[in-house]
Amino acid sequence: MTSTKTNPGNYFEDFEFGQEIIHATPRTVTVGDVALYTSLYGTRFAVQSSDAFARAIGYERAPLDDLLTFHVVFGKTTPDISLNAIANLGYANCRFLKPAYPGDTLSSVSEVIGIKENSNRETGTVYVRSTGRNQDGDKVLEYVRWVMVRKRDKESPAPEAIVPNLAPRVDPANIGSAVPPLAIARYDYAIAGSPYRWGDYEVGEKIDHVDGMTLEEAEHQIATRLYQNTAKVHFNQHTEAKGRFGKRIVYGGVVISLARALSFNGLANAFHLAAINGGRHVAPCFAGDTVYAWSEILEKAELKGRSDVGALRIRLVAVKDRDCADFPLKTADDKYADGVLLDLDAWVLIPR
Amino acid sequence: MTSTKTNPGNYFEDFEFGQEIIHATPRTVTVGDVALYTSLYGTRFAVQSSDAFARAIGYERAPLDDLLTFHVVFGKTTPDISLNAIANLGYANCRFLKPAYPGDTLSSVSEVIGIKENSNRETGTVYVRSTGRNQDGDKVLEYVRWVMVRKRDKESPAPEAIVPNLAPRVDPANIGSAVPPLAIARYDYAIAGSPYRWGDYEVGEKIDHVDGMTLEEAEHQIATRLYQNTAKVHFNQHTEAKGRFGKRIVYGGVVISLARALSFNGLANAFHLAAINGGRHVAPCFAGDTVYAWSEILEKAELKGRSDVGALRIRLVAVKDRDCADFPLKTADDKYADGVLLDLDAWVLIPR
Amino acid sequence: MTSTKTNPGNYFEDFEFGQEIIHATPRTVTVGDVALYTSLYGTRFAVQSSDAFARAIGYERAPLDDLLTFHVVFGKTTPDISLNAIANLGYANCRFLKPAYPGDTLSSVSEVIGIKENSNRETGTVYVRSTGRNQDGDKVLEYVRWVMVRKRDKESPAPEAIVPNLAPRVDPANIGSAVPPLAIARYDYAIAGSPYRWGDYEVGEKIDHVDGMTLEEAEHQIATRLYQNTAKVHFNQHTEAKGRFGKRIVYGGVVISLARALSFNGLANAFHLAAINGGRHVAPCFAGDTVYAWSEILEKAELKGRSDVGALRIRLVAVKDRDCADFPLKTADDKYADGVLLDLDAWVLIPR
After folding, report:
1. Distance of alpha carbon B350 from alpha carbon B300, whole angstroms
2. If residue A266 lies in a helix (H) or strand (E), which one and from where to where?
3. Do A34 and C32 touch (CB under 8 A)?
4. Which residues from chain A sit within 8 angstroms of residue C28, using beta carbons?
5. What is the DSSP letter of B13?
6. What is the 3-state secondary structure (H, E, C) of B195-246?
7. CB contact under 8 A, B7 and C194
8. Are C18 and C111 in contact (CB under 8 A)?
9. pLDDT value of residue B260
10. pLDDT tens digits, residue range C137-157?
11. So what's the pLDDT on residue B84?
């Protein structure tokens, strides 16, 4: 007798506008996860690395790396949202709302905020707003994501198309709540690794983060399982060998984390990722690729009522198998240049 | 002057019936080990993943995954029991007796409960009952295992053969003590990932766990060292290149853990492995193999005095490089089918 | 506009005698790091593995493995000291001064204690004394290291040559402060894994540690990032493919840790590395190499005022792709034999 208790994932027909999806599995994130996060990306931001440093400026203790929080919250959504997804089309309006600390238990809920069948009638786009909460029910993270999902049956009727109106950037008036008021005079620039603050960066400045990191299969699999992300393409060589690329695809979040960790070299004091305005995985990344990164300062903003930190809007670009001394991005015909993996638009906070 | 202080491992002649072997090294298992366990197998059972979930139903906090406890206790036995073993022949009567939590220190002792020379006079079978205890001396785990061990000298006299009488299954009257009385009404099925409880499963039901996971050398080595398991075949390519398979063999416990983690998809609420009735590593597993799994419900049992949880006896089968939609197990002549790695018979507990 | 905020690393001209360099990033070391350390090397010394064991003899809890402390302190120095280094020439006078525990925050400072341009005028040798401190400012570790660093410009004038006078060994009168007074009668030799104590070892005794461990790229990268060591040669296959060896070079500290972990088999009670008298990375190590180790007892010393532990001075040799039954070290012409990776001279402490 064959069981029907296995989760087959949701198809386009299973989503409806306004629907709320409660995701399994709640996860207590610990210093164990922090150590793994460090070991997988080599991140060096002092606030997240040192309890002593974090306490000196006003945190309870070193908070989780914002992207660790993001990946854990995101990972929970994969069995329900993207198991049958063909493509992760984009992110928008991602905001970190409250610091998460080791010991916090994170869980995720998504709301369907848009839905639109594609003209081929075989797929559709689903827009969700996913929210990560801690054990007290406080929101720590919120983001919008849209994915292309297969239909179960080409003949099913199309739902009324609803496409959310997504702002191209998060208003800086709405960021920063994940950073407590800081005793910023106690921020030690020498041990943080750089003298540069908010006032030292200029719009238009481009930063080559210099270093490159070669990814191994074991590394991205360990990372992706750490987040309890179940997307099959990252783990199953037996099926991927017959797939589009003949090999496993690295979870895009691994590329984001690597680029962010590399950005320490040039942005060492930009310790907090406050918001992701938008992001695009331009090309797939595979084991064996060497990831480099560069940033451009797109905009600067003061934060209402805060003299401790200011915001830099950065374009963070990850590139594979070429260094970034010439800031590779697009070709003359406005297509992404060969090797570009990620084009991310984010707000980071940095002492003033 | 060459030292003789190195442990050469025990040979068949070194074991005697009734002998007690105290194993090195005690090990404090922490949230660091839990994070690594999650990252290596992607396990998602809510009770072990979330302190908040575990506390809501009556645990002190999230207990260790039962197999993490098993592997740590088992790993300690390897330098004394199986350093010169040719084969790990089987497991029986494995029971989880008390929950283990991060911070507990585990240690292992084995008693030789059977011994029998093989007719070739070159090897013999040794049966041990191994017991894992916490820092308070409480038993957390007990199991019987038998291995084929080399003789040091073919001419040594054979000991009197004693073969223990091992029950084919653990009596369900003797399982469940590792689960405290649960406030099962507070068990949240939505965030646990499945609505199915004890009453929803039927004897004979077969569950394809769908997903496959490709193993890398770094992954199984990291896992096996985490358990301080010293068996040489898992780590040394220099010698294994000249060995039977030409490559390192994955510790069988890695396959058990992967199969158990994959079984979440279909058995999400079967949060506790209460007993292993028997288990057989049917074929060796190597890096590069993609592991799939399926289960069959063999039996159902109520637990004396407990209305919170019931027991399902499952056959958990791990298979490599083929999916499990057709539940591969044996061929017409009762041999294991190609690709079958593991045939495990276990009791799992699940809310009623 | 191209930023100049990226750290290009220091060149020979940037160092001057007496200079103090404060290194980024302070790091809280946790049980997460301990779990990773165990999983990467398989270390089994009871004092570091078990809180219960450590407390029984007088520690607060299980201290960090001494080499984990070393690697974290060392890793911080790499962006400032060795980013443009061609070779890590040696270590001397390394002493562990105070136990470090999970939860401690470690930071590093270096002082330039010697500087000497090479006759080719393209490089020079820089000697630094690096100090690791905990969150209270207490020294936990101190060592001298010298590296060959590129000059930015061949024509820059040579500084006055100053070469520190480095003792060939740490005086045993100055070691042991990282071990609290021990209730050594409560040291349990059975669970520690060996009956042998200080009195059982003889000068000239050579110990083959038997086991070999094959290294994977993912393993050494994960290890090296865990220490926030940024040296490029360990991580970037894209550039190393065009480099001297065509592949990534394993951080030498990984080899030291592997050799130390392997030395458990024969030196199980030598639980503390008290000092490194000197050390040389004889040949580079690469992924795929299988590392073996052997030790020789060079000297024995009592420690002033201590009847609990004594010191053994050992030569710890790591070798690749050959076993150590014949204790490979040098050839007839006093060159290191093929396969020798590491020649380390250290003091270890062991119960009397």
Report:
1. 11
2. helix A264-267
3. yes
4. 49-52, 62
5. G
6. CCCHHHCCCCCEEECCCCEECCHHHHHHHHHHCCCCCHHHCCHHHHCCCCCC
7. yes
8. yes
9. 98
10. 999 999 999 999 999 999 999
11. 80
